Amino acid sequence: MAQDQLGLFDKSPDQRETRFSLAVVALLIVALLVILPVRGIRLHEVQAFIPMIDGIMFVGELITATLLYAQAIVFRSRALIVLATGFVFAALLLIPHMLTFPGAFAPDGLLGAGVNTTAWIYTIRRAALPIAILAYVHFKQADASSHPGVERPSVRIMVWVWAAIAVAAAVTLIATRWHDLLPPFFVNHAERNQNYAAAYHFIVFAIYAAAAVALLRKRSSVLDLWLLVALAGWLVQALLNVVIDARFTVGWYGLFALMLFSNLIVMLALIAETSWLYSRLALSTAAQRREREARLVSMDTVTAAISHEVGQPLTAVALHASAGLNSLNKPRPDVEMAIRSFRAISESGQRTFDVIKSIRAMFAKGPNLQTEFDLNQLVRETASLMDRELAAKKITLELSLDEALAPINADRVQIQRVLVNLFANAIEALEPKRGRNRRIAIRSAQLNGHDLLLEVSDSGVGIAAESSERIFDPFFTTKATGTGLGLPLCRTIAEEHGGRLWASPSPDQGATFHLQLPIRRRHPHGPGTNVS
Ligand code: ADP
């Protein structure tokens, strides 16, 4: 269920992360092998080295702790709180370490430091992180088997942070005031006391090994993987520490450099993982928003298409109804005229019904109704539906139909919708034109053995140059009450039939729409594709 895993605390590592972490471990081993042969070489005593390294690690470990606490609040995890507190404690110990380091701020260190103060502080610091990891593994299992506590995680975090501060203060006090009670690590500021070295190294190795084994056994998340990398880094340093006899040697400087590297790698991995997860989340939120908007747009398209297509025959119904009523309301009712109006109403009603059926068919997946019919006949039928309107607006209709046209195999209702749209647009384009030349010409022709061509020309306002590229775009309209859906729907229907629809300027100023249709329906996406 990788998609449901949102935090690095519960996200399993992928191949890329595993490979990258192995590469980091390999790099640490190479660094150890390079340092080992030259470890004893004494280098210049750079007094600023320790404050500098401690400063960087202090900031790094506090950042790591903050990231872990943030995850702990989200997941209500005691395991993460304990681990983060381990980093806080380790970071806090860097302060007395830096202050008491001989030569950093005072020749013998501040806070009344003895020869062994820094060594003891550092030893406890070294042990703190693997012990925190052991506690983390323990609490992780406990968290998994218990319900999240009612206590607020932020309160729990405050308690743990104060505990870390108190223990760090106690360690500092012991390592400075009661310094002489502790076993000595150093004979003087540079040389080690070898008597305690073996016991010390054994304890450090034992803690690291225990933490590594516990993590390896229970490892499940990206965070566990990077903690293992950090442990590998600390183990490499522990190995180096066994063979270092003095401060300010290549080995000693190398030890701190490796320490810095392995501590920062956890922080960098946490930041990288967190921002990676964040950007994934942001991307998926954006995708969800786009999907929602697309759904809204398509809903909009459908409703606009329905009102556009159904609106036209309904307007005709209303017009014919009032014409019928007028003819019957006269002092001498014109029954003949009324009958014609009611027939027109019935035809328009039927057309509304067909249009609805056709819209449903258009949005439904699957084949539409295919029949064989005479395109010229359909043109005449459609023109007769319009003839009242044409007469009322004093528009001349010129038909030059090729009588040798082969019968066409297509969806009759959809092709009629195209014709109605083209006629309606032509009539509207003639609206602003006054005078005698108000003309619509329809021409049909057989193009070749496979295709027919139908042209609807008008002497209207024509298509403005700046609009010509856009008239087939959905929602593009220059009319106050237009929807901008007629032409895109017409083009979709033409293309669905394997044909084309395009526009050009008419010789007499207006516009011509060209509808090319195959006699037998071709699939729009080329030959060889199944039509049904
Ligand atoms: P609508 O008619 O709802 O505006 P259409 O998709 O049918 O939407 O047409 C889009 C635009 O194309 C119209 O607003 C108009 O500017 C232009 N157009 C369509 N047919 C013609 C025509 N015969 N003459 C001039 N312009 C036209």
From TrEMBL:
<keyword id="KW-0597">Phosphoprotein</keyword>
<feature type="transmembrane region" description="Helical">
    <location>
        <begin position="250"/>
        <end position="271"/>
    </location>
</feature>
<keyword id="KW-0418">Kinase</keyword>
<feature type="transmembrane region" description="Helical">
    <location>
        <begin position="20"/>
        <end position="42"/>
    </location>
</feature>
<feature type="transmembrane region" description="Helical">
    <location>
        <begin position="119"/>
        <end position="139"/>
    </location>
</feature>
<feature type="transmembrane region" description="Helical">
    <location>
        <begin position="79"/>
        <end position="99"/>
    </location>
</feature>
<keyword id="KW-0547">Nucleotide-binding</keyword>
<dbReference type="InterPro" id="IPR036890">
    <property type="entry name" value="HATPase_C_sf"/>
</dbReference>
<dbReference type="InterPro" id="IPR004358">
    <property type="entry name" value="Sig_transdc_His_kin-like_C"/>
</dbReference>
<keyword id="KW-0067">ATP-binding</keyword>
<keyword id="KW-0472">Membrane</keyword>
<dbReference type="Pfam" id="PF17158">
    <property type="entry name" value="MASE4"/>
</dbReference>
<feature type="transmembrane region" description="Helical">
    <location>
        <begin position="198"/>
        <end position="216"/>
    </location>
</feature>
<feature type="transmembrane region" description="Helical">
    <location>
        <begin position="159"/>
        <end position="178"/>
    </location>
</feature>
<keyword id="KW-0808">Transferase</keyword>
<feature type="transmembrane region" description="Helical">
    <location>
        <begin position="48"/>
        <end position="70"/>
    </location>
</feature>
<dbReference type="InterPro" id="IPR033424">
    <property type="entry name" value="MASE4"/>
</dbReference>
<dbReference type="InterPro" id="IPR003594">
    <property type="entry name" value="HATPase_dom"/>
</dbReference>
<keyword id="KW-0812">Transmembrane</keyword>
<feature type="transmembrane region" description="Helical">
    <location>
        <begin position="223"/>
        <end position="244"/>
    </location>
</feature>
<keyword id="KW-0902">Two-component regulatory system</keyword>
<protein>
    <recommendedName>
        <fullName>histidine kinase</fullName>
        <ecNumber>2.7.13.3</ecNumber>
    </recommendedName>
</protein>
<keyword id="KW-1133">Transmembrane helix</keyword>
<dbReference type="InterPro" id="IPR005467">
    <property type="entry name" value="His_kinase_dom"/>
</dbReference>
<feature type="domain" description="Histidine kinase">
    <location>
        <begin position="305"/>
        <end position="521"/>
    </location>
</feature>
<dbReference type="Pfam" id="PF02518">
    <property type="entry name" value="HATPase_c"/>
</dbReference>
<dbReference type="InterPro" id="IPR036097">
    <property type="entry name" value="HisK_dim/P_sf"/>
</dbReference>
